[in-house]
Amino acid sequence: MQGFAETLPTKIKKTTDEVFSEPQRLHKVLASCGFGSRRAMEELIVAGRITVNRMPAEIGQKVGPGDEVRINGEPVKIRFTEPQPRVLLYHKPAGEIVSRDDPEERASVFDRLPPIQGAKWISIGRLDFNTEGLLLFTNSGELANRLMHPRYEVEREYAVRVMGELSEDQVQELKIGVELEDGPVRCEKLVDGGGEGANHWYHVVIKEGRNREVRRLFEALGLMVSRLIRTRYGVISMPSVAKRGDVLELEQAEVATLIKSVGLKMAGGAVSAAAKPSPEKNTRTPFGKKKAGNGATQTEMPKQKKGARFKVERGHVPRFLKPGFFQAFNAPTDEAAMLDGEINDAPVNGAASDQAADNEGRQQRQRSPGRRGLFGRKGQRTPKQAKENSDNGTFGAEQETPDSASEV
User: Fold this and answer.
1) Which residues belong to the active site?
2) Residues forming beta bridges with residue 62, ordered by sequence position
3) Which of 37, 232, 270, 364 is the one with CA 20 to 30 A from 134?
């Protein structure tokens, strides 16, 4: 045994060369790592030098994807492919619970399912103890999440038998939405299925799977549900050949259709989210560029419109002020007057006389020297002239200025 230990490689391989699709016997897996023959691996197991999940390994023990294998304390990663997704269809009868652990020890739907190696069946949604109908199971967690999560809005269809009949107002209320203690609920579709006597059937489609949602929905309207059967989940409907308690497995083509219907894809046997379509590339030429003859782009300055200005100057009418803007205030719309900046303030509410008086007073102030005449307007007194006049004793004397010099 000691001589065999000396023949072991000094560096242990971190992963197996072979990729397994299902749980395998430990000595077969280790032999694929290149440590020796299967017989030699069994001797290492007997020597206690191999552990599985921190416990000594045993002869004939199988290992799966979740097991941790170590040789002489060094971890060895065993590569497993994702299991092929499988889907079971079960016609649940009333009187069974959708749970593996029940304190009351009632009959469970999992008792009727076939065994599966290296995995476990996941129920896609639940049905009440007294509810019958379609119940799906899968070994793919990603697929189960897509079918159950409310944000994906997978339709569930039920056949509901109630005591009594819905009125027209109640039908509209179900379609618009009924407020429950955990939020509003509405029926995507509601079809009258007819009935005899006090019982009446309805076919209801909803996009959620809350606890006792359909029963509470009708109870909120004052109707008691006497029987409830789920007939469809997404694109899978209950086949007419399935009797209560029957288990049917979907074929791979049917599984692929179900996976595609919820936006997933198959990749090497594994279920993964489908790639989002890449947005279309913007083919527009950027600003300041133009396409050359060879398909390249070259820089081009933006063309300036004729008569356009980038800076508002005196006498310039901005482009957003159209001539019609001045007509609203009874102002002149002569284009030449606009460009010259000679448009006076227009009278508002027809106050023409007050405006004329103000204009006359303004013209008189412009002709008089006033205080503005002291700051060097053309044809008026400058500060230097004012000082000379004051020295000559003529400060404050009135001087006439030409009318043409009143505006610059």
Assistant:
1) 128
2) 25
3) 270
